[in-house]
Amino acid sequence: EIVLTQSPGTLTLSPGERATLSCRASQSVRGSYLAWHQQKPGQAPRLLIYGASTRATGIPDRFSGSGSGTDFTLTITGLDPEDFAVYYCQHYGFSPYTFGQGTKLEI
Amino acid sequence: QVHLQQSGPGLVKPSQTLSLTCAISGDSVSSNSATWNWIRQSPSRGLEWLGRTYYRSKWSYDYAVSVKSRMTINADTSKNQFSLHLNSVTPEDTAMYFCARAGQAHYDIWTGYYYVFDYWGQGNLITVSA
Fold this sequence. Notes:
Chain A is mainly β.
């Protein structure tokens, strides 16, 4: 199975700043079949990005994804107060579909 | 708009069977363009995909190795829902359980369709304790 390692574990920033979150895979992610999900306390995860760089429906353009192979990045430009949450990367190229351990974005 | 509504008990005794149901609105459990999944989340294991079912002329099932011997997913087309049954539970099965739809995201001419988790249920906190 693919092991996804996210860094940093916690990222402390202020509204308006730029956040850069990293996800590294233990082996190449076929077809860049990698997604990013956002989770707020007490809520289910929400799909942000799939195919490494395609925004899901309704996701603001301040969210962008990039990368291929084993290294992927989620960038949030101009942080909004509602963006402070935990972010998970996840691969879906083949089962088992695994998740990273998460990056907590805090104020 | 797809909506997934979960139901089930919050407390299960060790060695018993955990059963959860996920009712679907806005899509069909028999859809040819989606798969129906169970995922759990705990502080010790993080987010863990458990298994899925889907219909492509017949029903198919995939399970994570960690639960394969104890887990069953059933689809009920008459109620448009699917369920999870996890037997012989232990305290290690204590977690928040989510159902999720995976919708078609990509097509590869050689390997077929790929699906991404795009709709999630609200979650059920399950505690395994005597």
